[in-house]
């Protein structure tokens, strides 16, 4: 690969500026849906953040009938590989999630691709659930473009969230369950390393430091499965 880690064309050692417009939370829990290339990688980044309660890979932007891995990977549907992030807005804001999205999760200047993953299914997109999310996203993109933090204009699309279609079981927690898989070591791991370097104070506490009363109920252990082939 020419760019196996999809490294950002901005400063590697400092995070992007904070969003200047980031309204206070209005609920105890909220959802954000973001697309930035391979959903294995984007999930691996956001699952590390304190205040993020759950991350689920899936498909967004197309119909339920074709929301499956084989169809989406063909590039013949309208979907993007995306992640649904359930978070506590009292601990991390929507603007902060977008800051991580643009800083560490993907390269927002690439059009319909991330590194060697090419096609509309790998487009950079923010699926806004309401007017507030759309406004935060629009203003932050304008802020970053005005500051010229990237060598090229941001190509991220702001799309209206119609429906989020959960991906197949084998794609959930994929990077965590397959840490030695070549795609994960070459592409996902460098993104997680960048997150840890730039946003160390935003990460979930170590297991021994957790307050059990603040943790969501544990979910059932997912069984391992064979690795899909197009990224092996």
Briefly characterize the structure.
This protein has 232 residues and is an alpha+beta fold.
Task: Describe what this molecule looks like in 3D.
The protein has helices spanning 39-46, 69-73, 94-105, 131-147, 174-177, 182-198; strands at 30-36, 52-60, 80-87, 113-114, 117-118, 124-128, 157-160, 164-166. Helix 4 links the parallel strand 6 and strand 7. With 232 residues, it is an alpha+beta fold. It is built from 6 helices and 8 strands, in the order E-H-E-H-E-H-E-E-E-H-E-E-H-H. It has a 6-stranded mixed β-sheet with strand order 7-6-1-3-2-8, with helices on one face. The protein starts with 29 loop residues before the first strand and ends in a 34-residue tail after the last helix. The radius of gyration is 17 Å and the shape is globular.
